From TrEMBL:
<dbReference type="InterPro" id="IPR029016">
    <property type="entry name" value="GAF-like_dom_sf"/>
</dbReference>
<keyword id="KW-0804">Transcription</keyword>
<keyword id="KW-0805">Transcription regulation</keyword>
<protein>
    <recommendedName>
        <fullName>Heat-inducible transcription repressor HrcA</fullName>
    </recommendedName>
</protein>
<comment type="similarity">
    <text>Belongs to the HrcA family.</text>
</comment>
<comment type="function">
    <text>Negative regulator of class I heat shock genes (grpE-dnaK-dnaJ and groELS operons). Prevents heat-shock induction of these operons.</text>
</comment>
<dbReference type="InterPro" id="IPR036390">
    <property type="entry name" value="WH_DNA-bd_sf"/>
</dbReference>
<keyword id="KW-0678">Repressor</keyword>
<dbReference type="InterPro" id="IPR021153">
    <property type="entry name" value="HrcA_C"/>
</dbReference>
<dbReference type="InterPro" id="IPR036388">
    <property type="entry name" value="WH-like_DNA-bd_sf"/>
</dbReference>
<dbReference type="InterPro" id="IPR002571">
    <property type="entry name" value="HrcA"/>
</dbReference>
<dbReference type="InterPro" id="IPR023120">
    <property type="entry name" value="WHTH_transcript_rep_HrcA_IDD"/>
</dbReference>
<dbReference type="Pfam" id="PF01628">
    <property type="entry name" value="HrcA"/>
</dbReference>
<feature type="domain" description="Heat-inducible transcription repressor HrcA C-terminal">
    <location>
        <begin position="115"/>
        <end position="336"/>
    </location>
</feature>
<keyword id="KW-0346">Stress response</keyword>
């Protein structure tokens, strides 16, 4: 990033304007920009031959690339990074975009997960890209745990948090469980959990079970362990990635190779590979960050860009992230304020609920 900024400082005014016009034209149309097109838009009146020489110099520096022999130029990944860091003009959030996001939040819901799901869909609709919302883990103190038998091989564990939030999971109980052992398991846990969060209970539960082995029989102990394990699986809803707008990335692609790259990206997302990386991406500072192509390993194969921002709880702790995926020729100036505003909305939503 610093190398790109230093490179920008070395360009003279003419080279900088040519570079900026090429990138802006590419981001708007997706097409290579030729020298004759630039002669009509540059503030300085110069010949097409002069512009071609400047573009060749920019190509030599690794900022532009010519996709075809007779075509104009498009920015390279290094060029896009330099443009984003040094020349990007971020616009104000448009009133229509703000209204759509605000209206989504105003549709009140006690289920934060459903609200974040709807907000992700709204973000996808506003940006015409794919939206990402990494939901937070619920860390309120636990008030009560209950196990409910549904069948010989199906049971429900219900957790009530001190802030009124209720979560439940279906799981397979250990063989031989009885209503009595399920009550024992719940009583054992409820005697331990007061004032503790779920993660704190996880850390101490095995120690307590070992220490109090005489107080809880094998069936109850197995019920406790298998019931809590439901929250540790890969599919837990308390820490999940909501992805909306897949069709927005697939719809305009005709090239088979590009389609396969995008499908590979979504396959990775749906398998939750590197899900925690979304939080790690945002830890170096507050505000919106932009990752282009291979700068983020999750998007290196698809050649996509990610615009991502963290959101925080009432204690100013980063607990999740909001982002938009799109092609490298995203309208960054418009997308950045949208992602920033959405992250603020989510942060307020989480803080209000807690």
């Amino acid at each position: 990033m610093n190398d790109a900024t230093n490179l920008l400082d070395e360009l003279n005014d003419r080279s900088r304007e040519v570079f900026r016009r090429v990138v802006e034209g590419y981001l708007e149309t997706g097409d290579p920009i030729g020298s004759r097109t630039l002669t009509r838009t540059l503030s300085e009146k110069v010949s097409a031959a002069t512009i071609r020489n400047v573009m060749q110099d920019l190509e030599y520096l690794g900022l532009l690339n010519s996709p075809h022999v007779s075509a104009g130029r498009i920015p390279t990944q290094v060029g896009l990074r330099m443009f984003v860091d040094g020349l990007l003009e971020v616009g104000d959030l448009q009133d229509t975009d703000r209204q759509m996001l605000d209206d989504t939040v105003k549709r009140n819901s006690n289920d934060v997960g459903n609200m974040l799901d709807r907000l992700g869909s709204a973000l996808s609709g506003v940006t015409h890209g794919a939206s990402l919302v990494l939901t937070p883990k619920h860390e309120a103190d636990i008030r009560h745990i209950e196990f409910v038998s549904l069948a010989h091989d199906r049971a429900l564990v219900v957790i009530v948090f001190s802030d009124g939030h209720v979560e439940n999971r279906l799981f397979t109980p250990p063989p031989g469980q009885t209503p009595s052992s399920m009550r024992e398991a719940a009583n054992f846990l409820n005697a331990l959990i007061e004032g503790r969060t779920l993660s704190e209970v996880r850390k101490s539960i095995q120690t307590d079970i070992n220490a109090r082995r005489q107080e809880i029989d094998r069936l109850a102990r197995d019920m406790v362990e298998s019931g809590l394990a439901v929250w540790e699986g890969e599919g837990e809803e308390t820490d999940r990635l909501i992805v909306r707008g897949r069709a927005n990335l697939l719809g305009g692609e005709d090239d088979g190779e590009e389609l396969e790259r995008i499908r590979s990206l979504f396959d990775d997302l749906e398998r939750k590979r590197d899900i925690e990386e979304f939080l790690q991406l945002t830890e170096e500072g507050e505000g919106v960050r932009i990752f282009i192509g291979s700068e983020n390993k999750l998007f290196s194969l698809s050649g996509s860009s990610l615009v991502v921002s963290p959101y925080m709880n009432a204690d100013r702790k980063i607990i999740g992230a909001v982002g938009v995926i799109g092609p490298t020729r995203l309208n960054y100036g418009r997308i950045v304020p949208i992602v920033d505003y959405t992250a603020q909305l989510v942060g307020r939503l989480i803080s209000d609920r807690s």
